């Protein structure tokens, strides 16, 4: 019995070592091109491009399954940044997927909200707080302005309000790539 336990422990140790070595030796990193494309996209997770979020759209662009002009929140500057990254000609924004809009945030009318939780289920970034049969509220700093919470609301208590750019919410629109210095 003791010999059987020792043999099993030895086999487990040997197989664990082989698996550990294999995970290091054959490690597959993510596609750096997908990460660069994803960094350019606005991260609204709105699905207007026809994909469930910005990362799947970035993967589709990198694999050649999607065009660079399908992101209305990114607008023409986003298309140009993607074209520059990929070394292709910029294209006009594809109107089939929508038109660019000013950045906005969802606002819930607290007097009208019935606490149905449909907006919470629709929000791709968990920016809405609340519980069943209780009033909900939006965490404005987390809201991407995707508008996915507006349609499911049965009492139309959610509105999108544009936000202006100021010091608290201003960001570089697209990543600044390193400028290589001449030696």
Structural overview:
- There is one protein chain.
- The chain is mainly α.
- The protein has two domains: 32-97, 3-methyladenine DNA Glycosylase II, Chain A, domain 3, CATH 1.10.15; 102-170, Alpha-Beta Plaits.
- Helices cover 33% and strands 8% of the residues.
- It has five helices and four strands; from the N terminus they run ααααβαβββ.
- A two-stranded antiparallel ribbon has the order 1-4.
- Helix 2 packs across helix 3.
- The radius of gyration is 24 Å and the shape is flat.
- The chain starts with a helix and ends in a 21-residue tail after the last strand.
Topology of helices and strands:
Blueprint: H1 2-25, H2 32-40, H3 54-63, H4 75-86, E1 104-108, H5 118-122, E2 128-129, E3 137-138, E4 158-162
Antiparallel strand pairs: 1-4, 2-3
Helix pairs in contact: 2-3
Structure in a nutshell:
This protein has 183 residues and is mainly α. It has helices at residues 2-25, 32-40, 54-63, 75-86, 118-122; strands at residues 104-108, 128-129, 137-138, 158-162.
